[in-house]
C-alpha cells in the first residue's frame, strides 16, 4: 500500500510526486462522449444483481424488507465511505509510492492521486478494489433475517450506492484491458491522465 497523505479539502487535485514518463508512453484513451451514460451501463452487471436481490428477498421471505429511512441512511453512509474508497485505490500501489487523498470541496468529490507506475494487473486491482464496499454490505443484506429490516435496509442502501459509484473506475479498467498489452505499465502523467508503456522488467509487479 502506498504512503497516504491526507490533503483535506482542496480547490483542485494536489498532485503526488511522480517520475517522468518515458518517451514512448501512450495516453490511455478514455471516451468522453456520453461518458457517464456508458459508465453507468458498464456498471449494470454490478448494480442490477443488487437491485434484483431486494425484490427476490422480499418474495422469498414474503415480507417487504424496505425501510426507506434506513435505505437513505445507507446511501449517506456510502458517501461517507469516500475516503475508504480512495484508500482502497491506494492499497494497490507499492509501499514506496506516495498517494494524496483529499476532497474537491467545489464538486464534493473525493480523489486519490498517485504518480507511481504499476503493472497492468495491479491497475485492474486498483480500479476494482472499491467493489468491496459494495460486496460486504450486500453479503450482510443477503444474510439478514426478516426481523432485521433496519440492518438489511441500511446495508442494501450502502451496497447499491457503492455498486454505482465506482462506474468510472470500471470504465478505466475496461479501457486498460482493451488498450494495454500484457506486460504493460500504467502511470499517471503531469496532466492527470493515465499513460501506458511497455518495459522489459517491472519491479512493481
Q: Spans of 5+ residues with little confidence (pLDDT < 50)?
A: none
**What is the mean predicted local confidence, pLDDT?**
93
- Share of helix among residues? 40-55%
Please state the overall shape, judged from the principal axes of the Cα atoms: elongated
| Biggest sheet overview | 4 strands, antiparallel
Number of strands: 7
**Structurally, how many domains make up the residues?**
1
Structural class: alpha+beta
Radius of gyration: 19 Å
Termini separation comes to 13 Å
Instruction: Name the strands of the widest sheet in spatial order.
Output: 2-7-6-5
Element-by-element helix/strand order: EEHHHHEEEHHHHEE
How much strand content do the residues show? 15-25%
H/I helix tally = 8
What would a concise description of this structure say?
The protein is 48% helix and 17% strand.
Describe the model.
- The chain is α+β, with helices and mostly antiparallel strands and 205 residues long.
- It has one domain (14-198).
- Helix content is 48%, strand content 17%.
- The chain contains eight helices and seven strands.
- It has helices spanning 35-42, 44-61, 68-80, 82-91, 120-128, 132-143, 149-164, 167-179; strands at residues 3-10, 26-27, 98-104, 109-114, 118-119, 184-188, 194-198.
- The strands form two sheets. Strands 2-7-6-5 form a four-stranded antiparallel β-sheet. The protein has a three-stranded mixed β-sheet with strand order 1-3-4, with helices on one face.
- A hairpin with a 5-residue loop joins strand 6 (184-188) and strand 7 (194-198).
- Helix 1 (35-42) crosses helix 8 (167-179), helix 2 packs antiparallel against helix 7 (149-164) and helix 3 (68-80) packs across helix 7 (149-164).
- The longest helix has 18 residues, at 44-61.
